[in-house]
Amino acid sequence: MEYEVIDPEAVSDPELRADLLDTWIAATDAGGSVGFTAPAPVHLVAETLDLALERVAAGKDLLGVLHNGDRYVGMGLLVGKDSALNLHWRTVLRVMVHPKYQGGGAGSLLMNGLRQSAVELGLEQLQLTIRDGNSLEEFYGKLGYRVVGSHPRAVRVAADDYRDELMLVTDL
Which of 31, 44, 63, 98 is paired with 17 by a 20 to 30 Å CA distance? Predict the structure, then answer.
């Protein structure tokens, strides 16, 4: 498995989009915290993916992917803000690995690739948010992230199921 950064001119590749959409739907349906709840609303996932790819094509965000030699099996974004005051850091967003390829270090490979991309961009910090209840603090903690804040009941995954959103930061 290999990490790579997608060139902004290559985001229109239909194979890339199809693989990332499949990964996102599979991750959602497996219970992943990637912006939606199961069953994945395919049309909304597709719209959100297309918006993300448009930002990458415009040079606003960076798309890091995992490729297993046959297909794209993971993705993560470094998302910038449109403010000169925030140029020294990015938000890590939409981190996911297709469930078929989880458990063998693919997530760490993806996150370490995104970290290296951030270093190459000259960034000083990365920030991400997670919903509690999925034990993700431990995974990200091993990668150097620390919890710096909590928004109680920020995420409603069902009518009677609220989760806190945790903000994590790492210095580069």
Answer: 31
